[in-house]
Amino acid sequence: MDYFKHKTAIVEEGVRIGKNTKIWHFVHVREGAKIGKNCTLGKGVYIGKNVIIGDNCKIQNSVNIYQGVEIGNNVFIGPSVVFTNIKYPMSPQENWQNKIEKTVVENGVSIGANCTILCGIKIGLNSMIGAGTVVTKDIPSNKLVYDKKDKIIKELKDV
Q: Using H for helix, E for strand and C for coil, what is the string for the chain?
């Protein structure tokens, strides 16, 4: 095994994990997930079926990344961030998997603690999302966003 897995972590069959990745306490990685090299998955992280995570990503404690999410390289995801995957969730229903919407987090993104990322959006290259923000629409590359209104505050190069 070219990666570290804590004894309490669950990694299902059919998961691909890159070299030097660390999977900590009580993490659950579902079948078909792909996790790049040099990543860290903190305590209590949930990675859904077929989720893709690039290289050099740090995913802090208690993050939930559900099926349909693709995360690029060099991404930071702060504690307790949640990615949704169905726009109009309901109690169990037929064909719920057909309603999953793709969410893309491009390379170099930083997402602060306690953010909620609604499904079907793209977070652009090197953008930064402040703690507690609820993201409901696409975020262009190189933008700083915060305050629960998806308001683009400024170009990151101006910060």
A: CCCEECCCCEECCCCEECCCCEECCCCEECCCCEECCCCEECCCCEECCCCEECCCCEECCCCEECCCEEECCCCEECCCCEECCECCCCCCCCCHHHHECCEEECCCCEECCCCEECCCCEECCCCEECCCCEECCCECCCEEECCCCCCEEEEHHHC
Q: Where are the domains of the chain?
A: 4-89+96-158
Architecture of domain 4-89+96-158: 3 Solenoid (2.160)
Each of the 159 residues of the chain gets a pLDDT tens digit; together they read 799 999 999 999 999 999 999 999 999 999 999 999 999 999 999 999 999 999 999 999 999 999 999 999 999 999 999 999 988 877 777 777 778 999 999 999 999 999 999 999 999 999 999 999 989 999 999 999 887 555 555 555 544
